[in-house]
């Protein structure tokens, strides 16, 4: 089972945009509400396989999105800053 990352964005619109861009190129991705354990508020995040990290980072850089952090999701669904 591949390790999963969750990337937290500064705005919902940036998260939705990057989700759509990554979905278009076939990346297995989920758009989710940011867990309260990571950040209080109503932001969105994406969850993706660690093997796709380079592609995700490159797409984020292309659009100039602001990220609040990247976390790994461990077996107990706990979040650890990557």
Account of the 3D structure:
The protein has 82 residues and is α+β, with helices and mostly antiparallel strands. The chain has one domain: Alpha-Beta Plaits (2-Layer Sandwich). It contains two helices and five strands; from the N terminus they run E-H-E-E-H-E-E. The mean pLDDT is 90. This is Putative Se/S carrier protein-like domain-containing protein. InterPro entries: Se/S_carrier-like (IPR021778). It holds the Pfam family Se_S_carrier.
Write the layout of secondary structure elements.
Layout lengths: L3 E6 L2 H13 L4 E5 L10 E6 L3 H11 L3 E7 L5 E3 L1
Antiparallel strand pairs: 1-3, 1-4, 2-3, 4-5
What gyration radius follows from the Cα positions, in whole Å? Answer: 12 Å
Reported CATH architecture: 2-Layer Sandwich
CATH topology: Alpha-Beta Plaits
With strands numbered from the N-terminus, the spatial order across the biggest sheet is: 2-3-1-4-5
Major sheet details:
5 strands, antiparallel
Helix coverage percent: 25-40%
Mean pLDDT: 90
Question: Termini, distance in Å?
Answer: 18 Å
**CATH uppermost class:** Alpha Beta
Strand content: 25-35%
Q: How many domains?
A: 1
Structure class? alpha+beta
Give the count of helical stretches.
2
Number of strands: 5
> What order do the SSEs take from the amino end to the carboxyl end, as H and E?
EHEEHEE
Q: Stretches where pLDDT falls below 50 for ≥5 residues?
A: none
What is the overall silhouette? globular
